[in-house]
Amino acid sequence: MSYNSTGENEFNSPQNLTVPSASSPVENSVKEPCTTPLSNDTLYSNTNSPSDSCVKPLCDAASEKKSQCNEGVKYVSSEGVKCGWGAFTPACLQFFNTPKGVLLFLCVASFLQGMIVNGFINTVITSIERRFDLHSYQSGLIASSYDIAACGCLTFVSYFGGNGHKPRWLGWGVLIMGVGSLVFALPHFTTSQYEVHLPKENGMCSSNQSMPCAESVSILSNYRFVFMLGQFLHGIGATPLYTLGVTYLDENVKSNYSPVYIAIFYTAAILGPAAGYLVGGMFLNIYTHIGKQMDLTPDNTLWVGAWWIGFLGAGAAALLTAIPILGYPRRLPGSQRYIIMRVSEAHQLKDGIPLRNPTFIFLCLAGATEATLIAGMSTFGPKFLESQYSLSASEAATLFGYLVVPAGGGGTFLGGFIVNKFKLRCSRIIKLCLLCTVTSLLAVFIFFIHCPNMPMAGVTQMYDRRILLESSLNLTAACNTECDCLREIYSPVCGSDDIMYYSACYAGCKKKKSILDSGKTVYYECSCVLENDPSGFAQAIPGKCTSSCERTVLLLFMFFVIFFTFLCSIPALTATLRCVSDRQRSFALGIQWIVVRTLGAIPGPIAFGSMIDLSCLVWQDQCGEQGSCYVYQNSAMSRYTLVAGIVYKVMPSYYFTFTSPSLPAPPNPNSPSFKNKSQLQENQFVSKIMARF
């Protein structure tokens, strides 16, 4: 048996695979210096090792007729590896029956998964809370339903799917994910229209202000179970994608090309959330009931955008993507060649027990700690920027998206490129991961730096500009005593004295006007602003005061943290695939995903959220009950973020340090033992092919 080493996947196996006839013994056919033709009309000697990339042509195709070894040679049919659905296998579909074709459709599927789960969900969660009267813990449970469902079926899918028809598992998974998106959008069409009742002088300094407390829980909150069902379907459908999809790519390409394919696959998954943030943000500027005229604007806290449009479009796209994936064969043409070409780097077990693989265990633990940091930062990164630089929520999300896309996507792709370019073995891959982790650990210390809080009357300072103690909160002063302000209404304004106020009422503003050219509202006759404004304008505008804190240094080091964190993701995944046997790869990835989600992705946002809540200065007051946090102390937030970053970077550094795979020395292709082993592998492979056909 011979191999074409001139290009990657430039063959049509098993049509080009020659095997001895049944009349001649396999042993004799291998020992003879026989030459066999390949598709490029060049004859190669099968005495060369299949792992040798420097095979030289022995003669041209014209000498084929003179060969004494061609008697009894037959070609194996390739009908079993055609792309199609059952008996329907049109010739036009065979153009996509390549690793690049599979990569294309899997990238589309991973892009849609990232856009739906990590993009749309995070973008619309606030609108869903407002529309369906949900509390924060209820929306948090909706977000966690995805990981809970994935953990529940990972073992089943990775084990049975790994031993079964992977493309069918993948196709049905993408189909279920599409159905989940349609289910998630269903509550919009089964509820009554969203009604808003606005008071005329909301937030102004006037008497007799009141806001009734809801005595009973709205029935709309029961729709959270529909959202949870949609998320469960998302989790079930996406489970095969990152276990079976990765192994299907890995086993159908050369081992040195596998990191590049996997890196492209994961890069698409990272670009998905970025598209979800951008597209989802655009849809939120459209009112939830399209065509209905409202006095509300997207800046109003009661505004609910068209959160459901993205789920309908992405769900339909997922259903269409599942169709071609279902048509792929169990193995692509030519993939059998890489079974004996791949040099196994699996952990050498001394006692024969496969579960005792310290390399795999340490890689799982390192991935879990890294996932904790990634999940926490992706959830609360925009909030950190919003507090540090006094930005709006949309501005902070956009800035964080611009930061993550080049850092995360570039790091993911470059990691796979480095492994492929330098052909790193498992031990050197782990050293690369350790270097990336230590580098990002050093960059984490940038969180020693923080931006000071913008001065806020009654929160960070007194109304007479005296510094206020952190533990005290006094929003009432002589200038707003008669305004009868409501603590429940938080609508910050920036006074002409460059001081931020809890609301226009607490600033003592009695009148407002709208500027037609810009469409903005200006409050004036603000008694509290007048005391500190030397110009005498005593005006205030809605929103936070602009921060003058320098952004470049902090954003640059945050870029390095994200970049080096994602730089080791594909190398670590490649090391996982190489430290286990071929038959256990899908199952190993399933176990690893369970560990990563259970110890990292699920508790990560909870741990980060708990630490960030410790830095809260002003809590929401909902009829005597504590709600979400309005104002954070920037110094405390940076300090807690620094502690979390150090902890979750030191731990993977420790795991990578003690991850030393017990691997055999690389074989010498010129040694007789290596040639005999290669011939034995060829004999076994030929026997399997003959037995199958």
UniProtKB/TrEMBL annotation:
The keyword Iron-sulfur does not apply. Residues 473-530 form the Kazal-like domain. It is a multi-pass membrane protein. Residues 102-661 form the Major facilitator superfamily (MFS) profile domain. The keyword Transmembrane applies. The chain crosses the membrane at residues 102-121, 141-162, 169-189, 225-249, 261-287, 307-328, 360-380, 400-420, 432-450, 553-577. PROSITE patterns: KAZAL_2 (PS51465), MFS (PS50850). InterPro entries: Kazal_dom, Kazal_dom_sf, MFS_dom, MFS_trans_sf, OATP. NCBIfam families: oat. One of its GO terms (biological process) is sodium-independent organic anion transport. Belongs to the organo anion transporter (TC 2.A.60) family. The gene is SLCO4A1. Residues 1-27, 36-50 have a biased composition (Polar residues). Pfam families: Kazal_2 (PF07648), OATP (PF03137). SUPFAM superfamilies: Kazal-type serine protease inhibitors, MFS general substrate transporter. PANTHER family: ORGANIC ANION TRANSPORTER, SOLUTE CARRIER ORGANIC ANION TRANSPORTER FAMILY MEMBER 4A1. This is Solute carrier organic anion transporter family member. It is found in: Cell membrane. Residues 1-50 are annotated as: Disordered. Keywords: Cell membrane, Disulfide bond, Ion transport, Membrane, Transmembrane, Transmembrane helix, Transport.
